[in-house]
C-alpha cells in the first residue's frame, strides 16, 4: 500500500503555509508593510494636519480649522468605499473615469488587488488615506472664512467629480495618461498639483478673509504647528515608501530620497530667508519642508540620490521665489486669499516635481517600479543613452499631465463651488468671521471652564463647576 503524497508546501514553516486566511498569492510581509504605510499616511492627516492647521491659524480659528480636517477624513472614507474607489481604480467607463460600484462586499475585498500581493481591502484603505489628505490640503487654502456647511458639501462633491478623474487617468492601469507612460510615483499630480490648483480655485470663489485677518494672521501656537509638521514629514515614509506596493528595495530608495530632498529643501529655504530677510523663520522652514516633500513625491523611487539633492535645491528655491517675489507682483495671486499658501507649496512644487521627474527619471529604477523595461526614460538619460526621442516624449507627457490636472481642477472646482452656493453660502458672514470658532461651533480652542469669558458666558460659578452643584437661580446670580 503506497503512502499518501505529502501535503503541499510541507517544507514551509506552519506560519508561512497557505490557508483560507492566507492565500497563496498573498505576501504577508508586503501586506504588513502596506497596512503600516497606509497608517503612516493616515497619521499625516489625523492628527498631523489637524495639529498643524490648529496651531498655524489665529486662536479664534483653531477649532474650525482642525475640525475641517477631521470632517474631511471621515467623510472621504464613507464616500470612498461606497463609490470613490471604484471610480478611481475600477473597471473602465471612459479612459479618464471608472464605473461606479461599491467596495464593500466580502468577495471583492478579500480577493487580490489589481496590483501587489495583498487583498483589495488593503488597497482600498491605502488609497483612501491619499484621497483624504488631498481634501484636507485643499482646506488649507480656505481656512478662516469658509462656511462649514459649504465645506461639508464640497468634500464629497470634489472627491467624486475631480479626484476620481485624476486618480483614474494617472494611476489606474487603464487610465489615459497612465497607459501613455506618465510618471507620477506617489501623487505629485494626483494629490499635490490637484490640491494646490483646487484650493486656489476654491479660495477665489469663497472670497477673502477679513482685511485685518489677511494683514495680521499669526500662528496661535508655533510649537503645536511644528508637531503637526513633524508628523507630516515622518508620515511621508509611508506616503512614498508604500507606492511600490511591496516591501522592496525600491521602497527603501523612495524613503531615503524623500527625506534627503526634504532636508535639502528646508535648508535651502532657511538660507534664502536669512540672506534676504535677516531672520531664520520657523514658519518659513516648515514651508520649505513641505515643498521638498511635495517635489520629490512624483519621483521618489525612480531617481538617484544626487537627483533628490538637486530637486531639494529647486523645491527650496523656486517656490520660495514665487511666494516671496512673484506673489507680491501678481494681481491675481494677491487677489485670491490662499490662507496656507497651498498654491505655492503644492501647485508650484507639485508641477516642479513632475517636470523634474521627466528630466531625472532613471530607466533601470523605472523598470523596478513599473516592470516595463525601456518604457520610461528621463530626458537627461535619453541624451546619455542616445535615446533623446524617448526622453523628449517623457518630458512631453509630464507637461501634458500638468495641463490636464490644472484644467480638470479649475473647471471641476469652479462648477462645484457654483453649485454649492445655490444651496448654502460659501463664505461665513462678516459678523461670524469677527468671532470665529465660537460663532461657527460654539467652542473655543483654549477656553478653560471657570476662567475668563467662558465663565461669563456660561453664568456658572466656580463652585458649581467644581462640585457639580445644581444650577439654581441663586447660584447663577452669584456669578453676576
TrEMBL record:
The gene is LOC113706038. One of its GO terms (molecular function) is ammonium channel activity. Keywords: Ammonia transport, Membrane, Transmembrane, Transmembrane helix, Transport. NCBIfam families: amt (TIGR00836). Its main location: membrane. It is a multi-pass membrane protein. Residues 32-446 form the Ammonium transporter AmtB-like domain. PANTHER family: AMMONIUM TRANSPORTER 2 MEMBER 5, AMMONIUM TRANSPORTER MEP2. This is Ammonium transporter. The chain crosses the membrane at residues 32-54, 66-86, 124-143, 150-171, 191-210, 222-239, 251-275, 282-300, 306-326, 399-424. It is found in: Cell membrane. InterPro entries: Ammonium/urea_transptr, Ammonium_transpt, Ammonium_transpt_CS, NH4_transpt_AmtB-like_dom, RhesusRHD. Belongs to the ammonia transporter channel (TC 1.A.11.2) family. GO terms for cellular component: plasma membrane.
